[in-house]
Hints:
About 30% of the residues lie in helices and about 25% in strands. By secondary structure, the protein is α+β, with helices and mostly antiparallel strands. It has 2 domains: about 5-90; about 100-160, no CATH class. A 3-stranded antiparallel β-sheet has the order 1-5-4, with helices on one face. A two-stranded antiparallel sheet has the order 2-3. A two-stranded antiparallel ribbon has the order 6-7.
Amino acid sequence: MLTDFENLPDDSRIWIYQTNRKFTDEEIAEIEPKTASFLKEWTAHGSDLQAGFEIKHNRFIVIALNQSITTASGCSIDASVHFIQSLEKEYNVDLMDKMNVTFYSGDYIAHKPLSDFRKMAKSKSVSKNTIVFNNLVNTKEEYLENWEVPAKESWHNRFLS
Length: 161
């Protein structure tokens, strides 16, 4: 059951999928209705899941699920992963690789493999104040408050001296 992202409760579960490149506006215009269609039909053991989504910065697909009504099951999570994988194939992007880091470099959003981010940290190209996207947030509230944070306030801090 598709619901407006803004109307989902703050304790809704969040999944964030980041792309290795920026989606074009044309791709976003195709991906939004596909994601809406998937979420309208998304179920767990035959029960509708109340979910919403947003696409941020043409780089992140954010799916939220109101678990107070129905929680996601292994099968429903598998279905969402298969949906994301279908987008990867169709748009030739990487959405599943968690070993990449996305961060602001000035006004530009950079996407680097974790190994490159570590090298940048050693060379002081990024600092504890670099704004990173903490895709490990679990709830809508954490997403709204702690997704775009200085590296010193996220798991990225371990790579900075």
